[in-house]
Amino acid sequence: MPAYAVIGAQWGDEGKGKVVDYLSRDADYVVRFSGGNNAGHTVINELGKFAFHLVPAGIFWPNTNCVIGNGVVVDPSVLLDELQQLRSKDVDTSRLYISDRAHLIMPYHILLDKLDEESRGTGAIGTTGKGIGPAYMDKVGRTGIRAGELLDIEALKPRLREIVERKNTIITKVYGGTPISSEEVYQRLVEWAQALGPHIRPVEAMLHKALQAGQRILLEGAQGTLLDVDHGTYPYVTSSSPSIGGACTGLGIPPHAITSITGIYKAYCTRVGAGPFPTEIEDEVGRTIRERAQEFGATTGRPRRVGWFDAVVGRYSCMVNGFTSLVITRLDVLDGFPTIKICTAYRVNGQELTHVPSSISELEWCKPVYEELPGWERPTAGATRAKQFPPEAMNYVRRVEELVGAPVHIISTGPKRGETAVLKPIP
Q1: d(CA 247, CA 256)
Q2: Which of 214, 221, 258 is nearest to 69 (CA)?
Q3: Domain coordinates of the chain in residue numbers?
Q4: For the chain, which terminal residue's Cβ has fewer other Cβ atoms within 10 angstroms, N or C?
């Protein structure tokens, strides 16, 4: 079988972890291709509730291999904590592989991330402070450290000393911070090398071999398309490419190997941090949705901003990624509302827009044009078959299909694996 992708279609937090875990049952490989531990995927199963930031969500299926690709920036301390959590539940972690080309998040990246965000004051972007941006800056600046270098730790020592010296100049002279010790950083690398060395592989070759053997590869997206550094609401974005293009560069697989792309949409919208959010609900309805859905970040714990479904964003995301199928999550959160709103266009300066403007200042002025649909009284929570959904709920789903431009194949009706209604199989 070829590769197929699961991509966040909004601002992240769409419920990809549950969906990837559900689909991983039939996958030979589940591979993560972008982002770092600024992403959080929640999986609930018979072993408990797990919030992953780096480990692919397919790790619980015993026949599934999990890969962290070269497009991911890896904080080894976070990864080791996740592996230990899994081992404490007797989950086999020997099936996890890390690309030798994946860049590492170093202690100075985390410090610089926090210092830079503090220096911005009221103009702060709202980063997670995990060192993601600085790590990607070093990657493109050609001063990063890659996982494969942990396999020859002695050869890395002189270069590390030079890097830390340059970083300390920035930390002390630009931000007035306290310098870090090169020797302490090196000792941390030695520990990481011992613990992660067995997991580090040239995974491009592994994936190409799997493709040639006809094995099934699930590409696990992190975050969402509207946070893409190129296609998102720049500058309020992440530092990587969570849209489908990042899958090829973040794993080293060819585009023709990806034969289906599934977009994950919440039945409403959320976003974390600063940035324009045209459909944001700031009244009691928004607070009700947030509390009912427990919309707090898996990575940061921050309250998520809540809004009605934005079909302008939905169409744009579908266009950028080429979705062949959709998954709607959190439909049950809308149970009981008398009416449900969908944003079909924006109004700005007396004109109506049906596309997402690239100008952030223009997007901030956009006002949503809403269409109201009847709500439903009968609950959808836990539904597993189409006939269990109230007609009004299915009308809402069909309207989303029409506006976005792709068919809904799965509806998630709760956080557990079994709380899933498959309308059509995902190829």
Answers
A1: 12
A2: 221
A3: 3-98+200-261, 103-196, 265-406+418-422
A4: C
**Which one of 28, 41, 199, 310 is the catalytic residue?**
41
What is the per-residue pLDDT across 315-328, written as a single tens digit (0 to 9) for each?
999 999 999 999 99
| 53 given a catalytic annotation | no
Nearest residue to 242 (alpha-carbon basis) of 388, 78, 39, 414: 39
Q: For residue 120, give every residue at least 6 positions away whose Cβ sits within 8 Å of its Cβ, in sequence order, or none.
A: none
Least confident of 63-67, 126-130, 265-269: 126-130
Measure the N-to-C terminal CA separation of the chain; round to a whole number of Å: 10
C-alpha 15/C-alpha 70 separation (Å) is 24
CB 42 within 8 A of CB 292: no
- The label of the residue with tokens 């950083």 reads 185
Residue 355 CB-half CA count within 13 A: 6
- The answer to whether residue 152 is catalytic is no
Q: What is the pTM of this model?
A: 0.93
175 contacts 168 by C-beta, under 8 angstroms = no
Note the helical H segments in 125-273.
Answer: 132-140, 153-173, 182-196, 203-212, 245-249
What is the fold, at CATH topology level, of the domain defined by 3-98+200-261?
Answer: Adenylosuccinate Synthetase; Chain A, domain 1 (3.40.440)
CA angle, corner 32, sides to 420 and 134, nearest 5?
130
Superfamily of domain 265-406+418-422: Adenylosuccinate Synthetase, subunit A, domain 3 (3.90.170.10)
The string of DSSP letters for 254-314 reads -GGGEEEEEEEEESSEEE-SSS--TTB--SHHHHHHHHHHT-B-TTT-PBPEEE-EEHHHH
Q: Is-contact 220 6, C-beta < 8 A?
A: yes
d(CA 416, CA 187): 41
Distance CA 290, CA 190 (A): 43
pLDDT score for 39: 82
DSSP-assigned letter for residue 151: G
- What is the pLDDT, as a whole number, of residue 398? 97
Q: Which two tokens stand for residue 30?
A: 């589940």
- Average pLDDT of span 327-351: 96
- Which pLDDT does position 123 carry in this prediction? 65
pLDDT digits (tens, 9 = 90+) for 3-28: 999 999 999 999 999 999 999 999 99
